Amino acid sequence: MEKPVDFWVDMKKNIEEQFEEQDYAVIKKETPYFLLPPENFIEKSKKAGTGKGSSYREDSVRNDHILWVDEQSDLTIQDFLKQGVAALSEIIRFPLVDCESHWAFYPKGTGFYGRHIDAFKVNNKRVISMVTYFNDQWDVEDGGVLRLYNNDNQGYKDIIPKKNTWVFFSSEKVEHEVLKTLKPRYSMAAWFKKA
Questions:
Q1: Residue 41 falls inside a structural domain
Q2: Rounded CA gap, 47 and 156, in Å?
Q3: Which of 68, 124, 140, 157 has CB atoms 3.0–4.6 Å from 119's, for a disulfide?
Q4: For residue 8, what are the contacts with CB-CB under 8 A and spacing of at least 6?
């Protein structure tokens, strides 16, 4: 498996080319083994909510379970994401300084996340969102696609959540949702942040 810096050098050109055309990039590339969720991920995960701080709440907007990547214990992942901060800063020509990430599990038959943007309404620092998937076999009939809406609301792009698929998009501009999944769905999301 390639080193994190090599991974991002290779990804950078693909992301840059697609960002010139639209506010998202979809890339097929092998997912590094160290990004896989821990074995006890489902037991340690918690039902996700929306908002942050005092505005955080569990609600009907989503049904998934998440486990935040721990900055202390997941040093390889943190190093990988720091390389991503540097690469994405060059692509968008804007200084990104940090990243937060979590693994997500969407339960069979009930997992979904309604239409939203990733930027917080108050004190937002998220600039670029990233998602990668850990699902070996997946077809459109399995549901759970990531739907990215065009900025003009005149269409959308559906992404099948299949292993080795990477999606990058503007946290502040791209509305998106996860359609109801008909089998268990696993992913990792990250948000690259400004100061």
A1: no
A2: 28
A3: 124
A4: 83, 84, 86, 87
Of 24-33, 57-66, 148-157, minimum mean pLDDT range: 57-66
80 occurs within a structural domain: yes
Q: Is residue 58 part of a domain?
A: no
Instruction: Please report the DSSP string for 36-69 in residue order.
Output: SPPTTHHHH-EE--BS-GGG-B--TTEE-EEEEP
- 76: its two tokens: 């390889």
pLDDT of residue 153: 75
CA distance 105 to 86: 28
pLDDT digits (tens, 9 = 90+) for 30-89: 999 999 998 889 999 998 877 666 555 666 789 999 999 986 667 889 999 999 999 999
Per-residue pLDDT, 154 = 83
Domain coverage including residue 157: 4-36+66-193
pTM listed for this prediction: 0.92
pLDDT digits (tens, 9 = 90+) for 121-146: 888 999 999 999 999 999 999 999 99
19: left (phi over 0), alpha (psi -120 to 50) or beta: alpha
Q: Contact 113/177 with Cβ under 8 angstroms?
A: yes
In a domain, 73, yes or no: yes
Neighbouring-strand partners of residue 26:
167
CATH number, residue 89: 2.60.120.620
